[in-house]
Amino acid sequence: MWLFFTLATTFIWGLAELFYKKGARPDEKYAHLKICVCVGVIMGIHAVFTLLTKDIGYDFANLIRYMPVSLCYIVSMAFSFFGMRFIEESISDPIENTSGALCSLMCVLFMGESIGALSVVAIIVIVIGILGVGFLDNSGDTDRKKKLGKKMAIIAFSMPFCYAILDALGSFLDIYYLEMETSPLAGITEETIEEVANTSYELTFFFCAIAIMIFMMIKGVKFELPKQRDKILAGLCETAGQFTYVYAMSGNGAIAAPIISSVCVVSLLLSRVVLKERLAKLQYLFLFMVIAGILALAVIEGE
Predict the structure, then answer these.
(1) Residue-range domain boundaries for the chain
(2) Hey, how many other C-beta atoms are within 10 angstroms of the C-beta on 78?
């Protein structure tokens, strides 16, 4: 069953990226915040469902204790949603998926872990691919400065990188939080530690969604729920993917992780087929370098 959940996670998260992009309309000023609200509310509902149906011995002090990790993930997603308003999904998603490589580098730099020669090669391939995409994005027909202005073009293109850095930091902190010997989480066991952490994350996202809703009400932003179909579907797919991810990793994590890393391939295909995104041939070459490096790193580190 772990393989089924692994494939399901990969496809569902690929769909989430598609709906995120469709919901992040460039002409809708607060689209990224509205997506955060939809995702946060759905995650909050799932968290309450977990607390009501499972005996995980949840201590609400974990909301505060896990907050550094939660905020890394939540803010990174907000950056991602903002960038999606102006950057093609074909470009942003592979860049965002380099967070795994960044997390590996953090482990080397701050935890003294060693990294093999093949992993170094994979990381170099990823960096070359990103540099290539960045160069092409600011030249020729894809010059975003002409469309958005220099300042906004720089801000928009920096969003996937902001996501990757913060998501990597969240994953790095999770190494500490999800180890029984070091975790500051309260009332946890080997069986419940992951669900306690995930519930804390979902509840934090829910409270952030409420804060954002209050902010938008003060600003007089219209937020008609029936018109947010793509944003709601994105939140449903994101939450469903988290649910299947737990079962995928509990079966054979070493094999599941590299398969799930291929979500950027699913996203690339969907963006081309459904969103009709078209990039230059050299852009696809560099993007495939990034994806190949990500998959290679996932396989190498999973062995």
Answers:
(1) 2-302
(2) 21
